[in-house]
Structures are given as structure tokens and as C-alpha cells.
């Protein structure tokens, strides 16, 4: 996931399945066929541990959850499909179930609504793998609390997932530049959870923008029924959109590069002295024994490559030509003489003769 040269894309299923297990398996199949890196599930085993008994969504929520055996089969099926598995745990029971049964899960994620939930954070103390913290809509002190809590419990494998749901999408609220500051402040990898509205004409463009800034992790809602009014459909894209997003992210990260300061081979070829960068040549005929000077040297693009860099020009001044040099001829080391000055050992105070 941390290889910034390659995209790491998580297809989030959320509750778009609405409790239909067959539909959820279809989502896994699609996410695998798309060639995404991971599938993300929302797991909830005890609704009353997550939501108040008087909450209007409680009864609906109960219809959307699966039992432990169903989750066990679904997780293994996802691994057979060559997908990493991200489990967003909404209750302590889910975390304990995954850890105690050593399920084949790659990441446990906490939703931003649980970022400072002591009991959920504490339940992760025995989780040996990576933890994803949803930080959308969270203040810096809230992020710091969660990160310090985990670090104090020996957890160093932490990823911060930036982004929040906002309909209709207000682009200025996305504030991608904040990701850079968060990454620097916490010295942790940061991913982007995009929630741009499904019918926003800039959905794909916005989804890819973090990759152009070097952030290779994207979390994005998927649905087999693009635009159909189901739970969590507002930010969910279909197969065709996801394919385009995947290709665009690969392109964006390729263009972003590695930040390596050393010139690549194509850069070296482009910047060679002579055919590309002007070479130092004789401005006029230079006779053998004549000193090189501002009057008889010039810079020109040439057919031949020159071994002398442009910034070595001042070092040439005053040197003597050891052969005749024609006008426009390259200045090369075999045509000039450099006399090394003999140093007097007495000039070096730390040496004794």
C-alpha cells in the first residue's frame, strides 16, 4: 500500500447491499474484475452496541447485518478473489471477532464517528496488522488523540484516511492541500476517501487529484447499480467509472514520479552538452600558445557532444591552447594545457618539513 509508484484502490461496499448477501458477493466479484487492490466491508455484529435503541435507523440497520459464519465465508471468498480485505468495524464485538478468530483480514478501519471511541481504540491493542483511521470532519486534536492512543499501545502501522461525505459536493470543502499538512504533522501515510456525488460531472477528476499530489491510496464507494437509489449510493460509482478512475490514477502517479533528483537516462540524453545545451567553442581562430579568453570563446549548439560542461567556462579562461583551434571548433581537454601550481609545504601550518 505504501509504494507511492503504484495506486492502491479500495472498493467500498458499505451498506449498498442492504442485507442481500448474494448482492454483496456480486459486488466482490465486480471489484475483483476491476482489478482493484482491496474490498472494504462495514461489519456490525451488535447494533445496540453501535446505535441508540431509540434511533430511527436501528430497525433498518438490523436488516443489513450478517452473522459471523456469513462474514467468515465472505472474507475467505474475497481472498480467493485475490483481494485485500478492509473491515470497517462499527462495534467492539466485530474487532474482537476478527482478532480472536484470526480471520484473514488485512486492515481494520475505524470510521471517523468512532475516532476517539476509547473502547474501540482499546480493542485494537491486540491487532498486529495495519489500522486505518477515518479522519474526515475531525479536528487535529482528535486525530492526535487516536494516533497517540494507538502508538502508546505499540501500534505503529497506522494509515489516516482523509475525506468526508458532503452532498452536494462543495469543492472548496475538499481542501486536498490539507492532506499534505496532515501527512507532515503526523508522519503517517494518508489516503483519500472520495465522496463526490455519483452524478457530479467532475467525479472522476476529483477522485484522481490526490494521486497527482503523490497520494496513492484511494477509497471509493462501488455499486453494481449506478445511480439507483439504494443505501450509500450517493457517492458510489459503477464499473465504467471505476475503470477510468483506475487508469487515470496510474497515469497521475506515473507523471508524479519518485522525486529522485538524479537525472534519468532520458533527461541526461536531453541535457547533453552540444546537441542540446550549448557547448563552448572557439569564437574565432585560436593559435597554438594563445590563452583562452572572453574574446575568443563562445557558446553554440553543435552536432558533436562536448565533454566540458557549460559551468566550467570560467575555469578555462587563461589556459593555453596546445594546438591551433579553428573557429566554431569544440574546446576539449586535449587542445588545452593546464599547469598545476606547485604548493610549498611550508604554506601548510600543520605539516613540518
UniProtKB/TrEMBL annotation:
AFP-like domain segment(s): 279-339
Protein origin, superkingdom: Archaea
Matches recorded under Pfam families: NeuB, SAF
Record-linked Gene3D superfamilies: Aldolase class I, Antifreeze-like/N-acetylneuraminic acid synthase C-terminal domain
InterPro entries associated with the record: AFP_Neu5c_C_sf, Aldolase_TIM, PseI-like, PseI/NeuA/B-like_N, SAF, SAF_AFP_Neu5Ac, SAF_PseI/NeuA/NeuB
Example of a GO MF term: N-acylneuraminate-9-phosphate synthase activity
Biological processes, Gene Ontology terms: carbohydrate biosynthetic process
Protein name per UniProt: N-acetylneuraminic acid synthase domain protein
UniProt source species: Methanobacterium paludis (strain DSM 25820 / JCM 18151 / SWAN1)
Lineage per the UniProt record: Archaea, Methanobacteriati, Methanobacteriota, Methanomada group, Methanobacteria
Amino acid at each position: 500500500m505504501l509504494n507511492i509508484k503504484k495506486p492502491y484502490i479500495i472498493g467500498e461496499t458499505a451498506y449498498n447491499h442492504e442485507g442481500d448477501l448474494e448482492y454483496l458477493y456480486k459486488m466482490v466479484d465486480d471489484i475483483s474484475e476491476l482489478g482493484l487492490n482491496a474490498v472494504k466491508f462495514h461489519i456490525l455484529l451488535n447494533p445496540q452496541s453501535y446505535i441508540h435503541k431509540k434511533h430511527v435507523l436501528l430497525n433498518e440497520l438490523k436488516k443489513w447485518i450478517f452473522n459471523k459464519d456469513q462474514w467468515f465465508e465472505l472474507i475467505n471468498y474475497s481472498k480467493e478473489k485475490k483481494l485485500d480485505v478492509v473491515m470497517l468495524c462499527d462495534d467492539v464485538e466485530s474487532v474482537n471477532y476478527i482478532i480472536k478468530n484470526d480471520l484473514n483480514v488485512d486492515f481494520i478501519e475505524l470510521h471517523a464517528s468512532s475516532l476517539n471511541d476509547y473502547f474501540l481504540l482499546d480493542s485494537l491493542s491486540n491487532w498486529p496488522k495495519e489500522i486505518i483511521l477515518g479522519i474526515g470532519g475531525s479536528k487535529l486534536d482528535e486525530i492526535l488523540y487516536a494516533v497517540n492512543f494507538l502508538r502508546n499501545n505499540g501500534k505503529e502501522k497506522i494509515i489516516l484516511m482523509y475525506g468526508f461525505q458532503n452532498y452536494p459536493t462543495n469543492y472548496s470543502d475538499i481542501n486536498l492541500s490539507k492532506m499534505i499538512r496532515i501527512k507532515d504533522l503526523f508522519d503517517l501515510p494518508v489516503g483519500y476517501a472520495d465522496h463526490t456525488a455519483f452524478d457530479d460531472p467532475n467525479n472522476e477528476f476529483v477522485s484522481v487529484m490526490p494521486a497527482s499530489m503523490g497520494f496513492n491510496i484511494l477509497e471509493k464507494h462501488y455499486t453494481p447499480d449506478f445511480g439507483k437509489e439504494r443505501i450509500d449510493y450517493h457517492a458510489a460509482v459503477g464499473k465504467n467509472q471505476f475503470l477510468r478512475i483506475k487508469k487515470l490514477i496510474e497515469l497521475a502517479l506515473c507523471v508524479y514520479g519518485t522525486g529522485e533528483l538524479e537525472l534519468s537516462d532520458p533527461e541526461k540524453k536531453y541535457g547533453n552538452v552540444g546537441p542540446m545545451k550549448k557547448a563552448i567553442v572557439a569564437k574565432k581562430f585560436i593559435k597554438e600558445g594563445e590563452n583562452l579568453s572572453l574574446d575568443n570563446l563562445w557558446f553554440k549548439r553543435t552536432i558533436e557532444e562536448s565533454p566540458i560542461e557549460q559551468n566550467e567556462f570560467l575555469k578555462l579562461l587563461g589556459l593555453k591552447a596546445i594546438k591551433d583551434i579553428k573557429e566554431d571548433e569544440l574546446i576539449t581537454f586535449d587542445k588545452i594545457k593546464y599547469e598545476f601550481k606547485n604548493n610549498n609545504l611550508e604554506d601548510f601550518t600543520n605539516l613540518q618539513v
